[in-house]
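Example record for the data management plan.
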Amino acid sequence: MGFAYYDQDTIETVSEQIVGLRVDTGVLANLSYWHQDQWEIFSVYGVIKVLNLFAESTVIDGAPGATILQLNYTSATPAIVVQDLSAVSLTLATLVVGDRLRFQGTNITTAPVSTGTACITDGSCPLPMILGTEGGTATIGFVTTVADATAGSHQWSIFYVPMSDGASVTNVI
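Corresponding structural encoding:
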């Protein structure tokens, strides 16, 4: 039967109910963003449930390196300093075009994992994480360490469900 009977608004509404609301960053140069520094990816307003969060490789890092990444959370209201959302990933040099570095969400000691196969993601966030506070403002970010990426690019995506009135996510970069 297909979707020929549904208008685009209906298709998008059904999609949002199943996979959550989606926010993407632009395509980011690895050389600029994966170089041993802290970056904020998304702003979080209110309370959200993170259903999926990943960086998708759009151009492979041509020079193998030892860059690793750790996701984190910082709250402006109330004031909470940088808190880990994950353990550190394996080296980002293993990502190929279409591969995704996926947030596991299980607990803060679980590392983001590479899907391992271009364009095929072998799972989603097994245990969604609840972030934020009623009326709060925060960011989801990452820090890279060990070595700088020298080439390539990636794009971040988050799928979430608002859990408090007016809760939302916007991209920062």
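Summary line stored alongside the record: The two ends are 40 Å apart (CA to CA).
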